[in-house]
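Tokens help. Consider this.
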Amino acid sequence: MGNKRHQNLGERNGALLLFGGPYSNLNATQALLGAARERGIAAAQMICTGDVVAYCAAPFETIELIRAAEIEVVAGNCEQQLAAGAADCGCGFEAGTTCDLLAAGWYAFATDRVAPAQRGWMAALPDIITFHHQGARYGVIHGGVTDVARFVWPTSPDEVLAEEWRAAEAAVGPLDHIISGHCGLPFIRDTPRGRWINPGVIGMPPHDGAQMTRYGVLDGGEVTLHRLRYDAGGEAARMQAAGLTQGYDRALLTGYWPSEDILPSALRVPSFASG
């Protein structure tokens, strides 16, 4: 695991907007900032679980929007890999899966468009963010602490969550709740240690047949999950114009991932049909 870069935000008792995976989806990121304004939540009260850059066609612009807003971001595997000039996204996909095969296209596109200053920003991002809210201490991670690209699903065995919780506390001390990202599915799960909260991602729908994506709001010690409506058609058109037509462009429109094989069987859609 190595030493983890830790950022302590101190007390954050007002409403916090939690989200992950902008995924280079500029329209969704703009819509999220609009939703925050409507809720009266300042950008300083927004926290991203990482993967600002991924499948969609506006990596440079999406990074710049996040940076300009000064949103707190924990490093995802995509940030780590792009900062290091790595050859792939390090997403943790098994070799030969659809995700693994499709990643080659979007990652090469992103690599060509992310600026050196943006890579420097990514390299400085924390691995773990902590803060206190309404008397409870929260830790924010990307996938796992043992592995930044570990998939922690709503259906993962209890021991997976317990292992990651132990690793997080070994790095930053006791935590009452953990906020994570990476898997792309929003869920809140009670564990013997506290709540494991994944607010979902804004850049891709959660494989549910609808275009809306997800984010969370932490207010008064409670987390609520919300749908984000944005111009999915415009974003898909941007991807198609850029030649990013491996399937994620259709996912924005259909609400179904082209990569269902990455999901545990219990989370797959029985009637799912690609295309």
Q: What stands out?
A: Confidence is low (pLDDT under 50) at residues 271-275. Residues 6-267 form a domain with the Purple Acid Phosphatase; chain A, domain 2 fold (CATH 3.60.21.10). The helical segments are 26-38, 59-69, 77-84, 98-113, 116-123, 158-172, 232-241, 248-254.
